[in-house]
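B., you asked whether I could sanity-check this one before it goes into the benchmark set. Here's the sequence:
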Amino acid sequence: MKKILPITLLLVSGWAFCQSDFKLKVSGDVPKPLELSLTDLSKMLRKEASLKDKDGSIHVYTGVSVQDILAKAGAPSGKELHGENMTKYLLVKCKDGYQVLFSLAELDASIADKNVIVADTIDGKPLPESKGPLRIIAEGEKKPARSSYQLESLVIGQIKK
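And here's what the prediction gave me:
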């Protein structure tokens, strides 16, 4: 038992150190690419989103609105979302290679009532290591396929003619 405790402390402190170095990258077709630490995100306006898991339990996630993060990077929103800007999208990339796509229009509150957040907590606790440190949550979707684990980057792109 005495030998297990130091090993456990070493593993936990190593995990915490890795998480403290984490940066969410926001790049692509934006005027101000970003690298946001977990601390940066914790200082932004917080929002909640609910999601039903595979066994039917509903969990409440807390984090930052994707729209707020994109606004910080200078992505078009509101009145700017017309013409060619309507062909812009958000590509969400995860650590395991999983990727999902959203149109910028569906994320904009002036066009749609979609609640999509970058979550760092579930039911008031940090996300488990296997699912964090960040998760994208797309509230209200019939299938949670776009609510992705281990979020690493948000990339703005545009469909070309």
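One thing to flag: The beta strands are 23-28, 34-37, 47-52, 58-65, 88-94, 99-103, 116-122, 125-126, 135-138, 151-158. Otherwise nothing jumped out at me.
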